[in-house]
Design brief:
It is a single chain. The chain has 16 helices and ten strands. It is mainly α. The chain has a single domain, classed as Alpha/alpha barrel (Glycosyltransferase). The strands form four sheets. Strands 3-4-5-8 form a four-stranded antiparallel sheet. Helix 11 runs antiparallel to helix 12. The longest helix is centred in the N-terminal third of the chain and has 21 residues. It starts with a helix and ends in an 11-residue tail after the last helix. The model has no long low-confidence stretch (mean pLDDT 94).
């Protein structure tokens, strides 16, 4: 029998570039922000020193205004598009100009529980995370909910949430470019050219104002209040607050941020779908999308009984975990990236959050389904929620980390483990 623990550990070792971890070779040849937080957690289950180094390396890319970019281009790789020459980021290391779901503080809290000897390193990282969270609070709020200014910022690149908002973007003048992702993965599993044109147009808009957040507020046609961002930042602030109190830091502003985000989360509740929904910040209209992000309320510490029936129905409509988009909805695609597949990382965030809030049956189901995906189909980027077939990139870092930290074991519950 294959030892999945050792296989998962080997994936992290193989994707290790010496201080930072690739999501997978070929398709993603750089350090990605939220992937890196998962990697740090995964490494901490067997090599805590390497886990802390991962977070420290991520902090090296922080911009002067506090933003931590979604991609840090440590080494040139001509096989990737769009690269640093397209993004023209203004950080200390070449980077993209947008961020990603701020899960790093929450994973640092888990790592500290697993490896208390890392406290000095956590103390050094803590103020940098606080400045990143402040950046979100300064530049990304709409009615207290956190907005994304590019679909890539949400981590859910081609989610149906963005369709109406993307249709309002004129990308006729985006110019010629060559995608690299579809040379590594079946195009049927990736965003369409229509979407990609608009992704690049939004990058060009950011570059046109040198990623000045105040100017972007005025000119960016894409600004969507997003459950993923709102719930992950709310959870991250709770974890940052707890660590700050432990470290003797001033946390009064973080307490205020939590209240603001709790109010903002309520503005994302859409009675029409019985769930948390994304909202166009320009028009105020809901997008009418029930997704796995709708289920992150429990992860954020919001035990909302209103949200459970729709999420339970989504679970029943799939065989393997929580689909990224409601399988009963029009436009569901079981292997196209964020328009249907089951993602182990989101299964972890949702399932662990449900367990914390006492939603035990659904939490146990999601965890067991996620373990089964890996046992039957290896460590893929994502999977068909009906058949379990692997999709996207293979030998994937964050999937291996989810096995090591949760699906195959729960080391974070063992105080002082690793």
């Amino acid at each position: 029998m294959i030892n999945l623990h050792e296989q998962a550990r080997q994936i992290l070792r193989d994707n290790d570039k010496g201080g930072y971890t690739l999501p997978t070779h070929g398709l993603y040849p750089y350090q990605w922000n939220w992937d890196s937080a998962f990697a740090a957690w995964g490494f901490t289950t067997f090599d805590p020193d390497r886990g802390w180094t991962e977070l420290e390396t991520l902090m090296l890319g922080q911009w002067e205004d506090g933003m931590i970019p979604h991609i840090i281009f440590h080494q040139p790789d001509p096989g990737y598009f769009p690269g640093p020459d397209v993004w023209q980021g203004r950080g200390p290391i070449p980077s993209s100009g947008i961020s990603q779901p701020p899960v790093a503080a929450s994973f640092m809290a888990k790592m500290l529980t697993m490896h208390p000897a890392g406290e000095a390193r956590a103390r050094a990282i803590w103020p940098k995370l606080k400045e990143w969270h402040r950046w979100f609070m300064d530049w990304r709020l709409d009615q207290g909910a956190v907005c994304v200014t590019h679909p890539w910022e949400a981590g859910r690149d081609n989610a149906p949430d963005w369709d109406v908002n993307m249709a309002a973007i004129n990308a006729d003048d985006v110019g010629e470019y060559t995608r690299r992702d579809t040379s590594h993965v079946d195009p049927a599993m990736r965003p369409t050219k229509y979407d990609y044109d608009r992704y690049i147009k939004l990058v060009q808009i950011g570059v046109s104002v040198n990623w000045d957040q105040e100017k972007l507020l005025a000119i960016n046609p894409f600004r969507v209040a997003d459950p993923t961002m709102t719930f992950t930042l709310l959870r991250a602030n709770r974890d940052l607050l707890a660590m700050g109190r432990r470290f003797g830091e001033d946390v009064s502003d973080i307490e205020d941020w939590i209240k603001t985000l709790e109010g903002g989360a309520e503005t994302l509740w859409n009675d029409a779908i019985g769930g948390y929904d994304s909202r166009n910040a320009h028009t105020g209209r809901f997008n009418g999308i029930l997704s796995n992000a709708s289920a992150l309320c429990w992860y954020a510490g919001i035990n909302d009984a209103r949200a459970l029936p729709a999420i339970e129905a989504m679970l029943e409509a799939a065989t393997y975990g929580l689909a990224s988009y409601d399988p009963a909805a029009d436009g569901f695609e079981p292997v196209r990236y964020w328009r249907g597949p089951s993602w182990p990382i989101m299964n972890y965030l949702v399932g662990s959050g449900m367990a914390e809030q006492g939603i035990d049956a659904a939490a146990d189901r999601i965890r067991a389904d996620t373990a089964r995906l890996m046992q039957e189909n290896g460590f893929a980027e994502y999977y068909n929620p009906h058949t379990g077939a692997p999709a996207g990139g293979g030998t994937f870092t964050w999937t291996a980390a989810v096995w090591l930290g949760w699906a195959g074991d729960q080391p974070e519950k063992r105080q002082g483990a690793a």
